[in-house]
Write a structure and sequence with these properties.
The structure is a single chain. With about 300 residues, this protein is an alpha/beta fold. It is about 35% helix and about 25% strand. The chain has helices spanning about 5-15, 20-25, 30-45, 60-85, 105-115, 200-205, 220-230, 240-245, 275-290; strands at about 50, 55, 90-95, 120-125, 140-145, 155-165, 185-190, 195, 215, 235, 250-255, 260-270. The strands form 2 sheets. Strands 3, 4, 5, 6, 7, 8, 9, 10, 11 and 12 form a 10-stranded mixed sheet that branches. About 25% of the residues are buried.
C-alpha cells in the first residue's frame, strides 16, 4: 500500500466522484480508477457503495479512511517538523504526559514569562501510544514502573486517585473509602484510543472488584458530566482534580489504598537531540522542580 493510494482514496471519499477527484489530483480518470481498484484488491473488499457516478463510503471504507487520515496527518506533521529543523526555525517544545500533567502548567507559564517565543506541543495521551520513544519528546512525564522502566528519570510527584460522585450519591458524605466500597458501583471510565483505559480500572481488576454496569467516554468533559448527572461514579487523579472540584455538584472521595496512587516521573530527551531552546527549558524545569543535577 502506497501513500499516494491513500491520498487518492481520501480525495475520492471527500468528493464521492472519481471524475472530480481525478481533475483535482491532475490524473486521468482511468488511472485513478485503476489505483482505487488496486487498493480495494489489496484490502480484500470494496470500499465504496456505487450508485451511478456517485461513490459513498461503506463500513470498510469508513474504517480505512480513519486510518488513512491518521497516517497522512502524521506524515504532514513529520514533514513540517523536518522543514522547521532544516531552517532552524523550530521554537516548539514537545512534552508528553500520562493524563493530566499536574504541576507542569505552572512550569510552562513561568518559562513563557522569560522566553515568550517558546511554543509548546503537549500530548497528554502517551499511555495509549503503542511505541513510546523519549526522542519523540523534549520532556516526558510518566508513571514509574511497567513499560516505562526503560526511561531514566526523576521522581516528580505522587498522583493519588479519588472517587468522584454526584453530591446526591450515597457515598457523597464519606470522608474516605476502601476498595471494597467500589463493589457493585456503576462506573464511567475515560478511554483513549482503542485499548487504553484508566489506571484505576487495572487496579480494580487486580483487586477483583466487581463493578456494576460500566460506561466508557473519550473526553474529560463528558466524563465529568456523566458523574455530575448521577448516572455513574468515576475515578479522578489528583493532578486533574481542579476540573472536577470547580463543579459544586460533585464530591471527590480519597481511596484508602496505596495501589490507587502512582509515582509520576520526569525525564528529558538526550542532550544531543535537544534544540537550544529545549535545553534552556530542560534546565529551567530542573530548577523549577528542584531536580538533582547530574542524576
Amino acid at each position: 500500500m502506497q501513500l499516494d493510494q491513500l491520498r487518492y482514496f481520501a480525495t475520492i471519499a471527500q468528493l464521492e466522484n472519481v471524475s472530480q477527484a481525478a481533475e483535482l489530483l491532475h490524473l486521468s480518470q482511468p488511472s485513478l480508477s485503476k489505483n482505487l481498484a488496486r487498493l480495494e484488491a489489496e484490502v480484500g473488499m470494496p470500499l465504496f457503495d456505487r450508485s451511478g457516478k456517485r461513490l459513498v463510503l461503506n463500513a470498510a471504507g469508513a474504517r480505512l479512511l480513519e486510518y488513512s487520515s491518521l497516517v497522512l496527518r502524521e506524515l504532514e506533521y513529520a514533514l513540517d517538523d523536518m522543514r522547521l529543523l532544516a531552517t532552524g526555525a523550530d521554537s516548539r517544545i514537545k512534552i508528553g504526559a500520562a493524563g493530566a500533567s499536574g504541576p507542569l502548567a505552572g512550569c510552562v507559564a513561568a518559562f513563557h514569562q522569560v522566553r515568550p517565543e517558546a511554543a509548546f506541543d503537549l500530548n497528554s495521551g502517551i499511555e495509549c501510544l503503542e511505541h513510546l520513544d523519549i526522542n519523540d519528546f523534549d520532556m516526558l512525564i510518566y508513571p514509574a514502573g511497567g513499560r516505562y522502566e526503560k526511561f531514566t528519570g526523576f521522581p516528580l510527584y505522587e498522583d493519588r486517585c479519588f472517587l468522584a460522585v454526584s453530591s446526591r450519591h450515597p457515598l457523597a458524605a464519606s470522608a474516605a473509602i476502601r476498595p471494597k466500597a467500589l463493589d457493585g458501583l456503576e462506573l464511567v471510565f475515560l478511554r483513549e484510543g482503542r485499548s487504553f483505559v484508566e489506571h484505576p480500572f487495572r487496579v480494580c481488576s487486580a483487586l477483583a472488584v466487581q463493578f456494576g454496569p460500566q460506561c466508557y467516554v473519550d473526553s474529560r468533559e463528558l466524563h465529568r458530566q456523566m458523574i455530575a448527572s448521577g448516572v455513574c461514579a468515576g475515578f479522578v487523579p489528583e493532578s486533574g482534580a481542579a476540573f472536577y472540584r470547580d463543579d459544586t455538584s460533585l464530591r471527590l472521595i480519597p481511596i484508602q489504598d496505596r495501589r490507587f496512587t502512582r509515582q509520576m516521573m520526569v525525564c528529558f530527551r538526550r542532550e544531543k537531540h535537544l534544540s537550544a531552546l529545549a535545553r534552556d527549558f530542560r534546565d529551567f524545569a530542573m530548577d523549577y522542580f528542584r531536580l538533582p543535577r547530574g542524576g
